[in-house]
Amino acid sequence: MRILIVRHGDPNYEIDSLTEKGWREAKLLSKRLCKMDIKDFYTSPLGRAKDTAKDTLEAMGREAKELPWLQEFFRANIARPDVKDGRAIVWDWLPQDWTKEPKYYDVNSWTDTEIMKDSTAAQEYKWVADGMDELLAEHGYVRKGNCYEVKERNRDTIVLFCHFGVQCVILSHLLNISPMVLWHGTVAAPTSVTTIYTEERREGIASLRVAAFGDISHLYVAEEEPAFSARFCETYDCQEERHD
């Protein structure tokens, strides 16, 4: 089985849709996906993800099932150490702060700190993990420990249109890695495609493996510059790039 996780196009967060560039990216993505044999499409309930899927679904005459847990992972806010008189998204930390705590590197203990306990991070993570496991079970793979029991092996491809934060949570669960490492150590540009395969090296037991992360080859082929969204300043003196 193959899972494609697609991040939405360059976002216009004010209207929960796409920028003009984002619509161009979505069209280029559509040309890529339309060449593939895809069994099922799933989408976040948020507008920017559904708009990214629009060209692909219309071109293929298909529909996508909306999954609430595919929405961006922003409901678990924390009292971030450097944010005064307010709270911040759980996955948007400064590296000099979160890297001091060894628990954040451990998939089993990253929610055991005081800051995380003062949030809904554990509950929100479980919601996404349970949703992903339920979806995989519908496609023949049932979670058993840190692997999956094969109930109905297949070579189907499914596509999830969603967001960077929740994508890292999904990968965290599938690969048994702390999401903190993925949130802060990777970048998936708008309309990027992350490809995950099942591997059944022993009969009846499957694991998940990433074959490509954040692939934007469809943009490079069309000479469309990747959007900067999800990145921060490459050097501190780049004042035109995002710092906070």
3D architecture notes:
With 244 residues, this protein is of the alpha/beta class. The protein has helices spanning 20-33, 47-60, 95-98, 114-117, 121-138, 164-175, 179-185, 217-221; strands at residues 2-7, 11-12, 17-18, 40-43, 64-66, 77-78, 88-89, 141-144, 147-150, 157-162, 193-202, 205-215. The strands form 3 sheets. The chain has an 8-stranded mixed sheet. A two-stranded antiparallel sheet has the order 2-3. A two-stranded antiparallel ribbon has the order 6-7. A hairpin with a 2-residue loop joins strand 8 (141-144) and strand 9 (147-150). The longest helix has 18 residues, at 121-138. The protein is globular and about 50 Å long. The N and C termini lie far apart (39 Å).
Topology summary:
Elements: E1 2-7, E2 11-12, E3 17-18, H1 20-33, E4 40-43, H2 47-60, E5 64-66, E6 77-78, E7 88-89, H3 95-98, H4 114-117, H5 121-138, E8 141-144, E9 147-150, E10 157-162, H6 164-175, H7 179-185, E11 193-202, E12 205-215, H8 217-221
Parallel strand pairs: 1-10, 4-5, 4-10
Antiparallel strand pairs: 1-11, 2-3, 6-7, 8-9, 9-12, 11-12
Mean pLDDT: 95
- State which percent range the strand residues make up: 15-25%
Could you describe the largest sheet, including whether it forms a barrel? 8 strands, mixed
**Low-confidence regions:** none
Helix coverage percent of residues? 25-40%
* Number of continuous helical runs: 8
Strand order of the largest sheet: 5-4-10-1-11-12-9-8
- What is the CA-based Rg, rounded? 18 Å
Terminal CA distance reads: 39 Å
Order of helices and strands: EEEHEHEEEHHHEEEHHEEH
Number of strands: 12
Indicate the structural class.
alpha/beta
Overall geometric form: globular
